[in-house]
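Internal ticket #5521
Category: modeling
Description: The requester needs a full-assembly model to guide mutagenesis choices. All entity lines are attached below as received. Residue total reported by intake: 1680.
Assigned to: D.W.
Attached entities:
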Amino acid sequence: MTGKNRLNGGLIDRSTSFGFTFDGVRYSGCAGDTLASALLANGVRLMGRSFKYHRPRGPMTSGSEEPNAIVELRSGARKEPNTRATTAELFDGLVANSQNRWPSLKWDAMAINDLFSPFLTAGFYYKTFMWPKAFWEKLYEPIIRRAAGLGSLGHDPDPDSYDKGFLHCDLLIIGAGPAGLAAALTAGESGARVILADEDFVLGGRLIADTGMLADEDGAAWAAETVARLNSMPNVRVMSRSTVIGAFDHGIYGMVERVSDHLPEPAPGKPRQILWRVYSKRAILAGGATERPIVFENNDRPGIMLASAMRAYANRWAVSTGSAVAVFTNNDDGHRTAADLVSKGVKTTVIDTRPDAPDTADYETLAGASVTNTQGRLGLTAIEVTLSSGTTRSLTIDGLGVSGGWNPNVHLTCHQRGRPQWDEKLAAFIPGGTLPSGLSVAGAASGAFSTHAALQTGQAAAVQALGDLGVKSSTPDLPTAEDAPIRVTPFWHVAGAKRAWVDQQNDVTAKDIKLAHQENFRSVEHLKRYTTLGMATDQGKTSNIAGLAIMADVAGKQIPEVGTTIFRPPYTPVAMGVLAGRSRDKTFRPVRKTPSHYWAEEQGAVFVEVGMWMRAQWFPQPGETHWRQSVDREVLQTRKSVGVCDCTTLGKIDVQGTDAAEFLNKVYANGFAKLPVGKTRYGLMLREDGIAMDDGTAARLADDHFVVTTTTANAVPVYRHMEFVRQCLFPDMDVQLISTTEAWAQYAVAGPNSRKLLQKIVDPEFDISNDGFPFMACGEITVCGGLRARLFRISFSGELAFEIAVPTRYGDALMRRLMEEGKEFDVVPYGLEALGVMRIEKGHAAGNELNGTTTANNLGMGRMVSKAKDSIGSKLSERPGLNEADALKLVGLKPVNSDDKVVAGAHLMTKGTPVDAAHDQGYITSACFSPNLGCHIGLGYLKSGDTRIGEIVRLVSPLTGVDHEVEVVSAHFVDPEGERLRA
Amino acid sequence: MHDLSPLTPLGNAEPSMETIGEVTLTEVTDVALASVAARLGREEDTRAALKKVIGADAPETSRHAGSTLRAFWTGPDQWMVEAPLETHEDLAKMLSNEIGAAASITEQTDAWCRFDLVGRDLFRALELLCAADTADWSGGEVQRCSIEHLGCFVLCRDPSTISILGPRSAAGSLHHALVTACHAAF
Amino acid sequence: MIINHPILGPRDAAEFVYKGDASLINRPDPQSDNAAERFYEYGYLRDNPAGLHRELWFHEQGDRSWLVVTRDTTTHEITKVELARDVARAEGRSR
Amino acid sequence: MRYSGFRVIKEALTGHRGWGPAWRDAAPKPHYDYVIIGGGGHGLATAYYLAKEFRQSSIAVIEKGWIGGGNVGRNTTIIRSNYLLDGNEPFYEFSLQLWEGLEQELNYNAMVSQRGILNLIHSDGQRDAFIRRGNAMILNGADAELLTTEQIVARYPFLNVNNARFPIKGGLAQHRGGTVRHDAVAWGYARGADQHGVDIIQNCEVTGFQIKDGVCTGVETTRGFIGAKKVASCVAGSSSRVMGMAGMRLPIESHVLQAFVSEGLKPLLPGVITFGAGHFYCSQSDKGGLVFGGDIDGYNSYAQRGNLPVVEDVCEGGMAIFPNLGRARLLRMWGGVMDMSMDGSPIIDRTHIDGLYFNGGWCYGGFKATPASGFAYAHLLATDTPHKTATAYRLDRFAKGGMIDEKGVGNQPNLH
């Protein structure tokens, strides 16, 4: 026997007993228990403290709407703050601790707030803590922050993994109560692809919490049989522990499956949870209803809970929630709870607000009475009842069930801003407004509260949904079930009650709502925001309606006039981990490796992230202790002899078709029509707004075949842009675009000895001499005895240089061969840093210069924008603002004192002017140490820079403490005439 | 014949292969690829030529067809041709000769890495990887979709054989995603 | 969202890249006398309707088609999807 | 009525009977000197400064729903002035300075919390860009500090530095940046404006403008015609809709930006932090919820709700830098309609119609700009000249080529 409050029966497995601890105390429960049911079975009612006043709290519900019984579940890196004890499945060794209390749950120092509650009313903090000014960050806020918050999150990385997945179905059924099961049965038998999802770990909804009969068997048994039947259908996927968290556009639903939360830890390789993106043609919401409380004085003590929860604990979990209990109700359903409890031998009294309350011999009913106060510091000990006669009577009880009627779970119908509408007969909001497309509602969620109505509306909804899809549905016979009429007389709060809790977690009382109204926070949204009503972790599932009712009361309006707040996703809070899935840590994004990656690793290269690519930054040699040594060596050796660099990451786009040249004329600012076959040309690409978008080269391999290169970063956007130009602007041009970035391993071979090196691997029939293969030549060749390759004589370094491309799978071998054959020239591999140094020395623009705000004019390429033809961006590049007399121009900068550094990101100031924004002259885009010039150099944009060569300006970087003089020079630090290129 | 030796997308001399539960995951490197994009107004000529090449009608939208040489649909009037690398190392040139000026041909062999999944209920791994609805695929289907942020082709050879083509440079990441999904699913 | 691709059928909008108002197809004639004004309006002014909106989407993770999608910006309901190339031709664009 | 700690105590002891309405619900008069369309943060701030600083009277703010119901009540509460370009930085710095004195100015505790904002750096190129930005901030009189990874880890010990796909190479901090209790900003300005005689008219939607020979003389509303000497539109995401009634097309698209809040947690994040290799920014509210966001969904929308892919992208960003967030739970998500402009920067200007003024294009810079936007707009309305920090925010800058493009992505609003 597990626990003194354990009754007979129930859906728990008494043969499997689980040991667990709460606040360090050992208890035992059964398989099928939740943490809450197990604790209650052990006589533990106090499970938490409220947010503001730190009032003692116990479970108010038996489900995911729980506002009070929230704990820190598990320990160490797996600690989960704010976990509902009412939904946490018990497992052997479970560890839970109470939260938001100090030093202990029983003796919480912060409970002092409860005494000060008159001062801590709604929004009090907006009216004080303003003086002295500095005290907010230093004193008030730290205190408030420490007092606020619920559970605490650990610092260790979440050790579990999460998956994401995609499901497709004709019909998604949300909720596996009587309505959902009937719908699934109907759709399943009709052969449709069905997903039946329920947040619980036992399916059946109220059928497993109540004692009603379906035909001649009890509801729980029928539910189990039906689930088994559905599981046997190949076209039906039954998913328990699966919460549909949101209804998104066009029939897409988010669903979280808790794969391993009921286990001590996930099995190897298995995820903790899965986020399913469900693509449904139709969906049925059969999410049931939630009972609502009545608001009265001190209605928040442990032992006071929803009547339906008491019933569920007794029926499903065989737990008695009190030795002597009362039920406070305004409707017939409260009597159902009383009947169930009495049948379990629990002494029960019913306090019914209705003078015409039904009477029975099974228990005492106090008609026209109401609960006007309660006692019990850490748990209910007695209540004060005011009878219809007006006299009061005290009842010594330790359990009070409250039933204020039921609210349909309309949440998902609001996720696309559908507004629920008020139903007078049910005294509740039912789905209204525009529902998410393809979604219909059945059962209690639609206001069909009786089991019979749930079964019938579930089947009808399935028939309707399948009909929409053109599927003829069979209608399996459904069992007969209770069809009791709904008898409820609205009763929201006991008149005069002040410290009566509406939102129990956030400690919003009836008084707070009245105050909000008094201060003109009268729109529902103002009420919500000002009092924090409904903003707790239960999103107001048990509090919103009572809040509206009280607001309506003070405003002298009807509830629908006051309005309603719509619910937002997610339906219940979702672990951030599952929304991220596998995209975290090293696998946050894919890694792209260059063809020479593994070879470079062998060389001990230092790698750097460039977008998704990993690129070799430099190749340290023995004895080199600082990166600069490696980079300087790579640069000097390349300029002196020859170096090789993997430039595969540059985008490559195959442009073919009879209009290929004409097409390039449109996308590039400069002309390509006259480019001869076998030649390459630099191209500058503008956005339509006239700003430089990207640059690269286009090599003409044939009349109707170009190979275009883009910068690494812009490979994808440029391809997208070219497809836009092709499909949307010039649809009748005969041009085809294929990205071939990955197909070719491409290496820059640069330096005076680059030709000599290449001649050793290029097959003899190809003449790559300066005459046979001049500057900017390109062609298809073979290497190493017949391997197809492409050769381009282009140079980013400013040296005599080539780029050679072979099919990617041979990239590794080619690099090794180049190094082998290059030994006689002391060939060096060079990385991204050396590449950067050499292009800065040569004054070539790159990403830092093409920063999305620079024009051809800024780059000193104004003349390249052909006026002879129309090209993307040419027109808007003519706007005056982009062509001002003092426009920024790309220049080189060199320290006056050669020891001084040039810092990228530093700003430029005219000598003798104040250092402020008003006198800003420009900024440094790229900087490096030039081993060739023996000093730092930089490229930058300077107002009218082209006319200021030779001027000494100030380079300032207050952020990094730099302020010294630099000389404005030509951006071409090395070989300005370009003789080396053509050698 | 040249003397350079190739590397597989995963960076080895030989293609990798592993078994996860009942499912085998193989790196496939013996297939040559070339894209065929019809020139404007030459769509029918291209289909006809392609039919000669693969010995079957040019595959319709989201389908693949052929025998030794196969083609799969990649876009409007655009296909990818697959052929044994052994015999068709220079597939692109071969296709150019066959199809001539009717289409633009581009070598794609090394633009892609390919992994084949072989086993039962493969959809259970695939549903953790991509949005393609593969549960009732029976063979001949192809869909381009996103797997772990990578643009991939998923081809169904037969109900128990799925090929996944992804960008070659990201082979390691794609392989890791496939292995992880198989462990989670099987 | 789901975009019902005219060739491929329903696809998750996450496979697409959004550009903007389909009027971007109507690039002005650079030769026209008020070209500067027209390019400014083409480049910068938008109707930005609360309601039906014709817009350009690129199927980046799919067949690389540019599409013109007619979508209600207040409900996200999609009522029409066309190949942008067909739309461009229909609107008189050629080469 | 003045708010103070003493007042709170006094009212507590007397049953809180003394608290009056924070602002009056006014009924529209037939004519005002100024009619401000839009009871959001900017509109209410404009009215407040127009009345208080520029000594104007006869001012109405008309709001189609309830005040503060737009983006001022839907944002991630961040304030900062870490801008790069001279067209922007002085304006946002002016705004930050107004935030710094806001509670005392309004006698309303909006919980301006200068806990600092930190932009993480993940690459050398990004460092260069942030150094340029930090320098621009300092040259404009703002504060900025370049932090090392070690300094950052000291504040955020659970930051993923050892197992990250994109390593953290430092960060740019603005210590004066921080957060503000967003709703309280609207309520504080409303209360302040009300106390200076401004009529705040809720549930009053503009249905048209009265424009005669190029002069705007008032607005048609659901509560009748309201005449005005000057009509000032200040409706953020609804800008195109409202100005469309005046026959104007704007360089603006409306996009949905989602925002998120987690369950309440004990103090975890000391300040505001933004991921530099993905879309994620986050702070922790005084109540304990992690308030975070990322990129806009990317398609035109007026629906005030987004979709799953962006939710996932944002949480991926969060897990990338804070792997301990896996076990925190997302509690609520919502969407706001952003007036995304063509260069990512706002517009505060007269229109070609006399008497009609426009304020919009805030993208998602709107909340932090609230005080300066109100002040500068009030300046323009009262003096017909732009405030000195807002001279670049002109409507004609696109035609003239004077874009203020912080991100450098050009005329595509969803990229800003």
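Resolution: model delivered.
Comment from assignee: Chains B and D do not touch (no CB pair under 8 Å).
Ticket closed.
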